[in-house]
């Protein structure tokens, strides 16, 4: 499903043309990385995607009720604590105080906020303030999530947690777009990479995200449990393990395989996203 589309979009600041004739479609489940040199217009594209900026020419169509945006610079609300700020943002998004509090604490815990959720935000370090900005964007699961250099300032643990959170958000059906300068982070996170160069957008790489299912025969079905995984139409690779079998499928087609497994008496040990090389 298409979540947002830029069609022949141009953007000028005064007489300077920053973007020229940009076409970009973003579908549910995609993780798009926008790359390019400093000043090439990446943040401008992100602001157009969420509607914070209007195109000078062309059109933007959006099909998302909940849109979340993490800017590259987070203006923290000085006197509020992280917990109070997130409760407030949750209520603005229509969540109950209880839900907003629970979800905030869960996200801050996953991102390992240090310094305390009740500390005034002006006392938080840059990385911890960034964690609050990320939690804000994920409070109410978005259909469109747009992040401007979201890894900036994060420590190693939060770095991988953010990758997991973005992948989960895409798996839940959101379209995710981000900018990032590290090739390694882009490679390990994005399903598609587009580069901006002199105002033009080009697709660099399209990846198919893969899911690995680790299955074990349950109960009485100890010998193969009636499914020939090698012949399953969606399965790309099968490996036998001591406990059962590991199968690799394109993400998005693994639900049907999971159902087949469960219907034939297999137990699901793990479901894991795998990034292709
Ligand atoms: N409000 C504005 N008014 C005038 N020029 C602007 C404005 N916003 C951005 N620009 C210019 O547009 C160009 C693209 O900026 P943008 O922030 O989109 O680049 P970027 O690719 O995100 O850069 P970086 O990698 O440094 O974050 C830059 O030359 C910038 O100076």
Molecular structure report:
The protein contains 7 helices and 13 strands. With 277 residues, it is an alpha/beta fold. It has 2 domains: 205 residues, Rossmann fold, CATH 3.40.50; 65 residues, Alpha-Beta Plaits. The strands form 3 sheets. It has a 6-stranded mixed beta sheet, sandwiched between helices. Helix 2 crosses helix 3 and helix 2 runs parallel beside helix 4.
Ligands, ions, cofactors = adenosine-5'-triphosphate
Number of domains: 2
Q: Averaged pLDDT, please? A: 89
**Second-tier CATH architecture of the largest domain:** 3-Layer(aba) Sandwich
The best one-word shape is globular
CATH class descriptor name of the largest domain: Alpha Beta
From the structure provided, what is the oligomeric state, counting identical versus distinct chains? single chain
Cα-atom radius of gyration: 21 Å
Number of helices: 7
β-strand amount: 25-35%
Assign the structural class, choosing from mainly alpha, mainly beta, alpha/beta, alpha+beta, or little secondary structure.
alpha/beta
In the CATH hierarchy, the third-tier topology of the largest domain is known as: Rossmann fold
Which percent range fits the helix content?
A: 25-40%
Strand and helix layout:
Layout: E1 2-13, E2 16-27, E3 31-36, H1 42-50, E4 57-62, E5 67-70, H2 82-92, H3 97-110, H4 126-138, E6 144-148, H5 156-171, E7 175-179, H6 183-189, E8 192-197, E9 200-206, E10 210-217, E11 237-240, E12 245-250, H7 254-263, E13 266-274
Parallel strand pairs: 3-7, 3-8, 5-6, 6-7
Antiparallel strand pairs: 1-2, 1-4, 8-9, 10-12, 10-13, 11-12
Bound molecules: adenosine-5'-triphosphate (ATP).
């Amino acid at each position: 499903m298409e979540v947002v589309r830029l069609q022949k979009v141009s953007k000028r600041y005064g007489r300077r043309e920053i973007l020229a004739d940009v076409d970009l479609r973003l579908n549910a489940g995609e993780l798009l990385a926008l790359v390019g040199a400093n000043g090439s217009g990446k943040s401008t594209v992100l602001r157009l995607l969420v509607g914070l900026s209007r195109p000078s020419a062309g059109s933007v169509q959006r099909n998302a009720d909940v849109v979340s945006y993490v800017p590259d610079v987070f203006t923290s609300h000085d006197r509020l604590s992280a917990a109070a700020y997130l409760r407030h943002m949750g209520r603005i998004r229509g969540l109950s105080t209880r839900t907003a509090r629970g979800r905030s604490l869960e996200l801050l815990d996953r991102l390992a906020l240090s310094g305390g959720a009740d500390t005034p935000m002006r006392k938080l370090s840059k990385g911890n303030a960034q964690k609050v900005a990320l939690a804000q964007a994920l409070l109410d699961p978005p259909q469109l999530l747009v992040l401007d250099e979201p890894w900036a300032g994060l420590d190693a643990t939060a770095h991988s947690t953010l990758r997991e959170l973005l992948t989960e958000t895409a798996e839940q059906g959101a379209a995710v777009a981000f900018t990032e300068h590290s090739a390694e982070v882009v490679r390990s996170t994005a399903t598609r990479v587009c580069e901006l160069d002199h105002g033009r957008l080009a697709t660099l790489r399209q990846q198919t995200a893969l899911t690995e299912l680790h299955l074990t025969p349950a109960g009485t079905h100890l010998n193969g449990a009636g499914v020939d995984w090698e012949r399953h139409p969606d399965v790309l690779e099968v490996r036998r393990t001591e406990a059962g079998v590991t199968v690799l499928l394109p993400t998005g087609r693994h639900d049907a395989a999971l159902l087949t497994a469960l219907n034939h008496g297999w137990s699901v040990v793990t479901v894991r996203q795998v990034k292709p090389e």
